[in-house]
Amino acid sequence: MTGAERVREAIEARNREGRAALIPYFCAWDPDLETTRAFLWAAAEAGASVVELGFPFSDPLADGPTIQAATQRALRHRPTLEDFLEFVFRLYAEGYPLPVVVMGYYNPFFRFGIKRFAREARRAGLCGAIIPDLPLEEARPWLSEARKRGLATVLLAAPTTPEARLKRLAEASTGFLYYVSVTGITGARDRLPEDLALRLDLCREVSPVPVAVGFGISKPEQVRLLAPHAEALVVGSALVRIVESEGKRAPERVKRFLSELVSAAER
Predict the structure, then answer these.
(1) 194 belongs to the catalytic site
(2) What's the pLDDT at 195?
């Protein structure tokens, strides 16, 4: 099974159980790699389906203050893609059960070499990538290498995306399509757009791959509201705030928080 197939199957398996899949986000090296490892195992034990693991980058475009701060903490460790891929390799050598996709900006992958990154990512066991600053019109080199290596490419759509473009994004995506719930940056929110459920239903009508929704999801009641309208839910800033407040002591609280969200994800 390819990485892209693993991602899609993990989501669809949870859907067959009558639940939306949960996709937590963690920033690698925040606060350190050993604790990052503990977060990933906590997510698996809590019932998450896929993990989004951020590779720190100094100039993020889509990240709000919470994840930007996490990135700055992580950058103090001087992370490299070689170390990131070695971390993923060792994680799977330990028997880690969930597919992991990297969330990262294009510059580090480009400098590393797109062909080299795709090859080494597959060798490490990484299942795919979310590259938020890579537009569809410029994604052909990555899409070609990702398909060749069986890696998922998760493209992003937004409330401002026209329907015709939405269809193209969905058709080019493998693993899942990531629908950004708001126009803006990441961050936990008390309220989500009133028409979000309707927009997600439209996405699902045109998408041949599962649709995941993210940006702003932080509470069980939001999960209960959105689970019937999306195959998967991405939770990031709310988790990173736990990491920020508790540091190396955070894994157990992360597990409890994710368990609550998983329980709320009935469709």
Answers:
(1) no
(2) 82
Query: How far apart are the C-alpha atoms of 36 and 239, rounded to whole Å?
Result: 12
Low pLDDT (below 70) residues in the chain:
60-63, 182-193
* C-alpha–C-alpha distance, residues 91 and 229, integer Å: 32
The predicted pLDDT at position 68 comes to 83
74: its two tokens:
């992580």
Candidates 9, 17, 30, 52; catalytic one: 52
For position 185, what pLDDT does the model report? 42
Instruction: Out of 30, 63, 120, 145, pick the active-site residue.
Output: 63
**Annotation marks residue 52 as catalytic:** yes
